[in-house]
Amino acid sequence: MAEFYIETNEKESGFHLVHFAGCSSLPAKDEIRYLGSIASFDSAKTEGEKIYRHVNACTECASKYASA
Ligand SMILES: [Zn+2]
Predict the structure, then answer these.
(1) How far apart are CA 46 and CA 58, in angstroms?
(2) Residue list, CB under 5 A from ion ligand 1
(3) Spatial CA neighbour of 55 closest among 66, 42, 68
């Protein structure tokens, strides 16, 4: 399990990015929303999609997850 956050502001692409709690690109606390303690990045994305229409993984987190 890992803790995940989603950005409350959408990127220029129109997507809200999902991050690990420990991500170095994680925005300030008032610009993110806690998703919960979730088993996988895919599940975290699914949780995010309940809140926002367009959700994507932070590329930095995704590369960490791939090597974890
Ligand atoms: Zn990230």
Answers:
(1) 14
(2) 19, 23, 25, 58, 60-61
(3) 42
Separation of 23 CA from ligand 1 center, angstroms?
A: 5
For the whole model, what pTM was predicted?
Answer: 0.90
Residue range 34-44: average pLDDT?
A: 93
Q: If you measure from the C-alpha of residue 7 to the centroid of ligand 1, how many angstroms do you get, rounded to a whole number?
A: 10
Tell me how far the alpha carbon of residue 52 lies from the centroid of ligand 1, in angstroms: 17
pLDDT, position 67: 57
Cβ-contact 23, 35 below 8 angstroms: no
What's the confidence (pLDDT) of residue 20?
93
Q: Where are the domains of the chain?
A: 2-67
